[in-house]
Automatic annotation (TrEMBL):
<dbReference type="InterPro" id="IPR036188">
    <property type="entry name" value="FAD/NAD-bd_sf"/>
</dbReference>
<keyword id="KW-0560">Oxidoreductase</keyword>
<keyword id="KW-0285">Flavoprotein</keyword>
<dbReference type="InterPro" id="IPR050097">
    <property type="entry name" value="Ferredoxin-NADP_redctase_2"/>
</dbReference>
<dbReference type="Pfam" id="PF07992">
    <property type="entry name" value="Pyr_redox_2"/>
</dbReference>
<dbReference type="InterPro" id="IPR023753">
    <property type="entry name" value="FAD/NAD-binding_dom"/>
</dbReference>
<protein>
    <submittedName>
        <fullName>Thioredoxin reductase</fullName>
    </submittedName>
</protein>
<feature type="domain" description="FAD/NAD(P)-binding">
    <location>
        <begin position="14"/>
        <end position="286"/>
    </location>
</feature>
<dbReference type="GO" id="GO:0004791">
    <property type="term" value="F:thioredoxin-disulfide reductase (NADPH) activity"/>
</dbReference>
């Protein structure tokens, strides 16, 4: 997909409006602001990783608290002249006029959507209450910190079987609670081969005492002690703005983009978890950088076209 932007540079408030101030959105804004582009970043202050105490896997930032990371990132973006607006986006219309819940409107030549995704959790007592603390999802984000402890994985998704296999490298004490899973004989044989215990029976709750997970309780009253519980949530992209703009959705249900994040709608880019559920913070930041780079190239191309059709030095 060729990178394109909306033409008519003198009639817009900004070169780019970035929706979402996580790692993806802020890194796109950083690159564009350093390129001396007029950039506005709109964010409602509700990041996906807010419940987590630390984030990991980001070279030079490993172990940093998510709010601290975002504070540093926002300060860097502001330092290069970008505008940060605390608001939610109500609508984006053709031509990239962005309407905020405050009533403010922003016009731009291009758009970056970095609105992330939401985790749809199973309706099991204790899961939502402890989410991001000792009920978690990502082994790469939390596995090292809970190494060698008694771990549990809730069988609320077909992906739980392989999730249990992954967790085995962090601990020798892993229990898969089958719950509603329809496991094959091969699944059970592979789990048994690696010393992963399978406990059958529906789950009643995650047991929480003294502000910590203590185990998992089945509906028959059996309690199995665990210190950390993993769950595979259903990841739902926050892509309603992209869909409303007419961006193509792939057969997997996710917005189609090229390697730079360009959607099928000229001038509309997407980055981070809104297009890739597997993207960690460091990956999302790189996606934002790639989108910012591609947008600036497209803006330069548009600037050349505008310069050829307007009097010298008019802009």
């Amino acid at each position: 997909m060729a990178a394109e932007v909306i033409t008519g540079m003198t009639t817009h408030d900004y070169d780019t409006v970035v929706i979402g101030a996580g790692a993806a959105g802020l890194n796109a804004a950083l690159l564009l602001a350093r390129a001396r582009r007029r950039v506005a970043v709109v964010d409602n202050g509700r990041p996906r990783n807010a419940p987590a105490a630390h984030m990991h896997g980001f070279l030079s930032r490993d172990g940093i608290a998510p709010p601290v990371f975002l504070d540093v990132a926002r300060a860097e973006v502001l330092g290069y002249g970008a505008t940060l607006i605390d608001a939610s986006v109500s609508e984006v219309t053709e031509g990239f006029t962005t309407t905020l819940d405050t009533g403010q409107t922003l016009s731009a030549r291009s758009l970056v959507v970095a609105t992330g995704l939401r985790d749809e959790l199973p309706d099991i007592p204790g899961v939502r209450e402890r989410w991001g603390r000792d009920v978690v999802h990502c082994p790469y984000c939390h596995g090292y910190e809970v190494r060698d402890r008694p771990l549990g994985i809730l069988g609320t998704s077909p992906g739980a079987v392989f999730h249990a296999q992954m967790l085995r490298q962090w601990s020798a004490d892993v229990v898969l609670f089958a719950h509603t899973l329809d496991m094959t004989a091969e699944d059970r044989a592979q789990l048994h081969a690696r010393g992963i215990q399978v406990i059958d029976g529906p789950i009643r709750s995650v047991v929480v005492t003294d502000d910590a997970v203590r185990g998992v309780e089945l509906t028959d009253g059996t309690q199995i002690a665990r210190s950390t519980v993993f769950v595979v949530p259903r990841m739902v992209p926050r892509d309603s703005l992209l869909r409303a703009l007419g961006c193509t959705v792939g057969p997997d249900g996710w917005i189609v983009v090229d390697r730079a994040g360009q959607t099928t709608v000229p001038g509309v880019f997407a980055a981070g978890n809104v297009i890739d559920p597997r993207a960690q913070v460091v990956t999302a930041a790189g996606m934002g950088s790639a989108a910012g780079f591609a947008i600036n190239i497209a803006l330069v191309q548009d600037d050349i076209t505008s310069a050829l059709t307007t009097p010298a030095h008019a802009t």
